[in-house]
């Protein structure tokens, strides 16, 4: 990643959970900008005592939908998985989290585009009689489970963590509204951002917003945001790439 002053005088709102916000913040600082860390989501692990009973020797696939799913599962399941369980990541960030926690990555999609990409892999086209567990937070998307069931699998959820709306101070909210660029990494984080910055909503809807998928982009546009750009994948590098392109285009417009 480049190191220069492209973002000198610019502020970027980083809305990832606090434990995951430092990498993007450092990237912004390396380009001369100021990252305002304003978590729009907090992550709370659900104790393993509250997990459903799962007959692990009967499970074929264990799907992790996010890095948070990996961390929450590892915190609660502190023993080796049976050899029959094959672990699946939905994207690049989840792959890294699995590797960091010592989990084998038996399957991942060719592109880091979430559930839609995972559903294209050859192993998930015909699943008659196979048992699948999806590690997620309550209220997640149903597309993956519904499609896998249509293809013959028996699918159950393991809700290992939950998303919680933070309670920032009024000063933090005022600071968050005084930025040049916004980022949002999920529909839930965007909705929380709008709720937390409600007094400033008409202003922030005019700011450039970087999101991770077409689905989030459509939600943002329907929520009144005017300038929404989608990354190529869910990584911090991809977010920084889009921010860089927007700032370079801004500079060109000023020169014209």
What does this structure look like?
The protein is an alpha/beta fold and 256 residues long. It folds into 2 domains: 11-41 and 166-255, Rossmann fold (3-Layer(aba) Sandwich), CATH 3.40.50; 44-163, Rossmann fold. 36% of the residues lie in helices and 19% in strands. The protein has a 5-stranded parallel beta sheet, with helices on both faces. α2 packs parallel to α3 (92-100). The longest helix has 20 residues, at 236-255. The mean pLDDT is 93.
Which descriptors would you attach to this protein?
Rossmann fold; 36% helix; 2 domains; 256 residues; five-stranded parallel β-sheet
Summarize the structure.
By secondary structure, this protein is α/β, with parallel strands linked by helices.
Write the layout of secondary structure elements.
Layout: E1 11-14, H1 22-30, E2 34-37, E3 42-45, E4 61-64, H2 67-76, E5 86-89, H3 92-100, H4 115-118, E6 131-136, H5 143-150, E7 154-159, E8 161-164, H6 170-177, E9 181-184, H7 187-196, H8 201-204, E10 208-211, H9 214-222, E11 227-230, H10 236-255
Parallel strand pairs: 1-2, 1-9, 4-5, 4-6, 6-7, 9-10, 10-11
Antiparallel strand pairs: 3-8
């Amino acid at each position: 990643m480049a190191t220069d002053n492209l973002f000198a005088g610019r502020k970027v709102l980083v809305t990832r959970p606090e434990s995951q916000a430092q990498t993007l913040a450092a990237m912004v600082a390396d380009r001369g900008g100021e990252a305002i860390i304003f978590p729009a989501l907090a992550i709370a692990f659900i104790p393993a005592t509250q997990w459903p009973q799962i007959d692990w020797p009967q499970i074929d696939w264990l799907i992790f939908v996010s890095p948070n799913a990996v961390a929450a599962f590892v915190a609660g399941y502190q023993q080796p998985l049976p050899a029959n369980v094959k672990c699946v990541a939905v994207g690049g960030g989840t792959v890294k989290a699995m590797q960091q926690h010592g989990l084998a990555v038996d399957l991942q999609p060719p592109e880091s585009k979430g559930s839609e990409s995972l559903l294209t892999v050859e192993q998930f086209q015909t699943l008659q009689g196979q048992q699948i567990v999806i590690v997620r937070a309550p209220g997640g998307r149903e597309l993956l489970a519904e499609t896998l069931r249509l293809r013959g699998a028996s699918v159950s959820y393991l809700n290992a963590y939950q998303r919680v709306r933070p309670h920032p101070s009024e000063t933090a909210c005022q600071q968050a509204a005084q930025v040049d660029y916004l980022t949002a990494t999920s529909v839930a984080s965007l909705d929380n951002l709008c709720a937390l910055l409600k007094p400033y909503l008409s202003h922030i809807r005019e700011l450039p917003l970087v999101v991770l998928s077409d689905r989030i982009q459509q939600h943002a546009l329907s929520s009144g945001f005017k300038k929404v750009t989608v990354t190529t994948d869910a990584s911090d590098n991809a977010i920084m790439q889009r921010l860089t392109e927007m700032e370079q285009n801004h500079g060109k417009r000023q020169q014209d």
